[in-house]
Model the fold of this input.
Amino acid sequence: MNSKILRKIHIYLSLICFSFLFFFCFTAITLNHPSLLTKKPSVHQRQLSISEPTAQFYNDALARNGIVLSQSQQTLLIASSELTIANPGQRIDLYIDNQNNIIEIVDTNFGWIATLNELHQNRHTPALWTVISDVIAGILMLICISGTWLSLKHKAHRKRYLYLLTASSIALLTMV
Done:
């Protein structure tokens, strides 16, 4: 492949992926050293009184408080009297007390570092995030391949680059 075209591909893909690569590198550090930036979660509890213990009254009361459930979540809540809704960095726990016609809501926010870490781990994320992560990972692999190819085209430095590439590969393999 023409070096000029390959260099342009390498540069533009690098620019496209910069913020994502920076994000994943930053969160790799926060995941490796959780005690540095951990924050005590903030927990907010509240109770909702229900006039009738029916699915419609539960849904209406929750909707008035900004919680909208899918049909499967509604079914699970009614069947087990409890439900956890997990999002990156946040959990909402719902408990139904049928004897007193009360829904207890426990909203826990773990902070923005926890949110970023869970995005990095693809935990409690929407399907779109998974697609974006996979596309970015594929592009980053192309950046690695194109950068390696461009570096190995330099005959004067090829031997040194191959040593570095080999050392990097051996280091990874010894850690696995």
About this structure: Residues 3-32 form the longest helix (30 residues).
